[in-house]
Design goal:
Number of strands: 6
Mean pLDDT: 90
Order of helices and strands: EHEHEHEHHHHHHEHHHHEH
Strand content: 5-15%
Largest sheet: 6 strands, parallel
CATH topology of one domain: Histone, subunit A
Distance between the termini: 5 Å
Shape: globular
Length: 313
């Protein structure tokens, strides 16, 4: 890595691909700390639904930007980028390697591409977000995607119609700034990044193995208290929390509209669909180094390959 820019490692990939375990192992080898890049793990009170790493999984490695935002607060990619840059600087000042880890491509790009959205009025953000969520609930995903397409077809064409979270964030950003998010990205590319980024993307040649991991993760969530957590969240009537995969799929079960088995099957299917959208996003990153998890006989070999890539000049 060059001396002129701050070294930054990135571990990205679809849900259940093993990002957290790899980031923790790399932090031990490379004297690092982990910065989460997950748009839902920032929230308190939903660690099971968002698959936030437990203290055991963190294995003594400091993790940042997990569970620090109330479900009643508004949160945006702009706020995330500002907080992540601050935390990355603090880690570097301690002489340690920042390791950005997560599956929210928009959040990762905001940091690695040095996208700066400017100051925002948090109350205005909150009001716009609440209105857009109400509109989405009333009109549906297709109508919101169509709205985005009218002013930002470039970004809309990259997003799945049912990727409601990202579609609404893009509309929100346009309403706040008058500038399409794709244009923000283009503007910022002219500005050099302060980071020397080494980006790893985890993938699977045999997709069935990833989907099996996703299914097993959902089963594990149930054992770890997903029902109790979801029941508490639904009592809060938080539109933000209900966007988390798990909460919205289980609502029909709590409303006695389907069985628990049926709700969990929907959750597994939507998690697999989400993983496909994540993989589509990361495939477009030409500078990323892809590691196919199923190419490695064991986890130690995967860590060795990832560590070697990050330490290359």
């Amino acid at each position: 890595m060059t001396a002129q820019r701050q070294p930054l490692a990135v571990v990205a990939g679809p849900t259940a691909s093993g990002k957290t375990a790899l980031a923790v192992a790399l932090a031990k080898v490379l004297n690092g700390e982990v910065v989460s890049a997950d748009s839902m793990q920032v929230y308190k009170d939903i660690p099971v639904a968002t698959a936030a790493p437990s203290f055991d999984e963190r294995d003594g490695i400091p993790h940042h930007l997990i569970g620090h935002v109330s479900l009643s607060e508004s949160y945006s990619v702009a706020r995330y980028a500002e907080e992540a840059r601050r935390v990355i600087d603090e880690i570097a000042q301690r002489g340690r390697l920042p390791i950005l880890c997560g599956g929210t491509g928009l959040y990762i790009a905001a940091v690695t591409d040095n996208i700066r959205y400017g100051e925002q009025d948090e109350e205005k953000v909150k009001a716009i977000r609440a209105r857009l969520q109400e509109e989405a609930a009333l009109k549906g995903d297709q109508a919101m995607w169509d709205t985005l397409h009218t002013f930002d077809p470039t970004l809309a064409d990259k997003l799945h119609i049912h990727d409601r979270g990202r579609v609404l964030r893009a509309i929100e950003m346009y309403e706040l700034t008058g500038v399409p998010m794709s244009e923000w990205h283009q503007r910022q590319k002219a500005e050099p990044s302060p980071y020397d980024v080494k980006m790893l993307v985890l993938d699977f040649k045999d997709r069935a193995r990833l989907y099996d991991r996703i299914d097993r993760r959902v089963d594990g969530m149930l054992k770890n208290g997903l029902l109790e957590e979801t029941a508490a969240v639904l009592r809060l009537e938080s539109p933000t929390a209900e966007q988390a995969i798990g909460c919205k799929e289980l609502r029909p079960y709590f409303d006695a509209e389907c069985s628990l088995h049926e709700a969990l099957e929907v959750m597994k299917r939507r998690s697999r669909q989400y993983a496909k959208r994540q993989m589509s996003w990361f495939r477009r990153l030409t500078t990323a180094h892809v590691l196919y998890v199923d190419d490695y006989a064991d986890f130690d070999l995967l860590v060795e390959a990832a560590s070697a890539f990050i330490q290359t000049d």
